[in-house]
C-alpha cells in the first residue's frame, strides 16, 4: 500500500530493517517455547491445546505472532524488496491480512476462555483497553488502505490517494507502537498474576544475585518484551531518512563551500502512491 524508494534507504538502514525482521522472527520462536512449556512452577503458559485452560495461551501466541511478527514483516518487506510495485502492495496486504486474522482469532480465544471461567471479567484491565483501541485503529487503517490502494474505487483519484497516504502511514506507525505497548502490558499482567518474583528476607540491594530465583518462564517472557522493543526501534531507524540539504549525487561533486553548509533534517521517507 505504501511504496518506498529503496534508493533513499542508506546501507545502515537496510541492515536495521533486516535486524528488525530477524528480531520479530526470534520473538515468534521464543513465544512458541513460552507457550509450550508445561511447567506452571516456572511460569510457562502450559501448552497449545484447545482445552479451556490453554485458550489463554493461544491468545498470547496468536496476538504476538499477528501484531508483532506479521506487522513488522508487512512493513519491512515493503521497504526492502525491489519488486514490482503492485506485487509489493499485494505482499504488504497479505501480511496485514494474516495479522488481522490471527489477532481476531486471539481475541476470540480470550473471550471464550473468560466465558468458560465465569468469575473472570472482560475488558477490565489496561491491557484489554489498549488492545481494543489498537484493533480499532488497525482495522480502520486496514480497510481504508485496501479501498484507496488496492480496490478500483479510487484507482483514478491520484490526488486523493496521495493526500490520504500521509494519514495511512501515520496510523500504520501508531498501530505498531500501540501494538507493542499493548503486548508488553499483557506480558506484565501475566507475569504479575503468575508470580514472577522471589522471596527476600532483607533489603534487596543486590538484585543480580537473585537472578536465578526468577522462574524461567518469566525470564523468557521478559526477553520477548525486550526483543519487541528492539524490533520497534530498529524498524523506526530503518524507515526514517537523514536527508541532507543538498541530496548526495554520485555523478556530481559538491564544492567544499557547499559541503559544510549542509543541514541534516529527519523526516519520514517519502513515497509513491
How would you explain this protein's 3D organization?
The protein is mainly alpha-helical and 273 residues long. The protein has one domain: Four Helix Bundle (Hemerythrin (Met), subunit A). It has helices spanning 11-36, 55-80, 85-116, 126-149, 158-194, 216-238, 256-259; strands at 3-4, 240-244, 264-268, 271-272. The strands form two sheets. It has a two-stranded antiparallel ribbon with strand order 1-4. Strands 2-3 form a two-stranded antiparallel sheet. The protein is globular and about 70 Å long.
Termini separation comes to 8 Å
Mean pLDDT: 82
CATH architectural group: Up-down Bundle
Work out the strand percent.
5-15%
Please tell me how large the radius of gyration is. Answer: 22 Å
Name the poorly predicted regions: 1-7, 243-273
Briefly note the structural class of the backbone: mainly alpha
What is the count of β-strands? 4
Helix content: 55-70%
- Total number of distinct structural domains: 1
Question: Briefly, what CATH class?
Answer: Mainly Alpha
Question: What count of helical segments does DSSP give?
Answer: 7
Strand count, sense and barrel status of the largest sheet are: 2 strands, antiparallel
Shape: globular
Strand arrangement within the widest β-sheet reads 1-4
Within the CATH hierarchy, at the fold level, what is the topology?
A: Four Helix Bundle (Hemerythrin (Met), subunit A)
- Order of helices and strands, N to C? EHHHHHHEHEE
Can you tag this structure with a few keywords?
globular; single chain; two-stranded antiparallel ribbon; disordered C terminus; disordered N terminus; Four Helix Bundle (Hemerythrin (Met), subunit A); 63% helix; 5% strand; mainly alpha; two-stranded antiparallel sheet; 4 strands; 273 residues
Amino acid at each position: 500500500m505504501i511504496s518506498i524508494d529503496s534508493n533513499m534507504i542508506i546501507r545502515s538502514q537496510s541492515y536495521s530493517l533486516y535486524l528488525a525482521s530477524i528480531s520479530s522472527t526470534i520473538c515468534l520462536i521464543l513465544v512458541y517455547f513460552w507457550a509450550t512449556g508445561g511447567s506452571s512452577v516456572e511460569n510457562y503458559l502450559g501448552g497449545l491445546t484447545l482445552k479451556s485452560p490453554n485458550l489463554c495461551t493461544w491468545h498470547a501466541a496468536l496476538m504476538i505472532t499477528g501484531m508483532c511478527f506479521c506487522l513488522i514483516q508487512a512493513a519491512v518487506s515493503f521497504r526492502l524488496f525491489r519488486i514490482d510495485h503492485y506485487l509489493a502492495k499485494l505482499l504488504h496486504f497479505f501480511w496485514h491480512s494474516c495479522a488481522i486474522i490471527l489477532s481476531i482469532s486471539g481475541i476470540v480465544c480470550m473471550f471464550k476462555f473468560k466465558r468458560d471461567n465465569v468469575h473472570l471479567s472482560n475488558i477490565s484491565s489496561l491491557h484489554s483497553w489498549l488492545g481494543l483501541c489498537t484493533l480499532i485503529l488497525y482495522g480502520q487503517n486496514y480497510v481504508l488502505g485496501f479501498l484507496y490502494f488496492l480496490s478500483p474505487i479510487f484507482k483514478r483519484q491520484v490526488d486523493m490517494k496521495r493526500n490520504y497516504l500521509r494519514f495511512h502511514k501515520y496510523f500504520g506507525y501508531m498501530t505498531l507502537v500501540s501494538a507493542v505497548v499493548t503486548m508488553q502490558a499483557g506480558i506484565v499482567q501475566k507475569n504479575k498474576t503468575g508470580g514472577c518474583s522471589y522471596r527476600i528476607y532483607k533489603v534487596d540491594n543486590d538484585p543480580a544475585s537473585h537472578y536465578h530465583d526468577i522462574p524461567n518462564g518469566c525470564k523468557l517472557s521478559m526477553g520477548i518484551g525486550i526483543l519487541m522493543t528492539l524490533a520497534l526501534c530498529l524498524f523506526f531507524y530503518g524507515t526514517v531518512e537523514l536527508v541532507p540539504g543538498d541530496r548526495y549525487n554520485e555523478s556530481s561533486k559538491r564544492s567544499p563551500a557547499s559541503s559544510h553548509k549542509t543541514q541534516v533534517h529527519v523526516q519520514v521517507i517519502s513515497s509513491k502512491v
